[in-house]
Amino acid sequence: MERILVVGSTGAGKSTLARALGRRLDVPYHEMDALYFAGPGWAVNERLAEDVGEIAARPRWIIDSLGYPDVRDLLWDRADTVVWLDYGRHVIMPRVLRRSLRRTVTRESLFGGNRERWRDWLTRDHPAWWAWSRYPVRRREIGERVDDPRFAPLTVHRLGTPRTTAAWLAGLPSGG
Question: Taking 70 as the threshold, does the pLDDT of residue 176 lie above it?
Answer without folding.
Answer: no
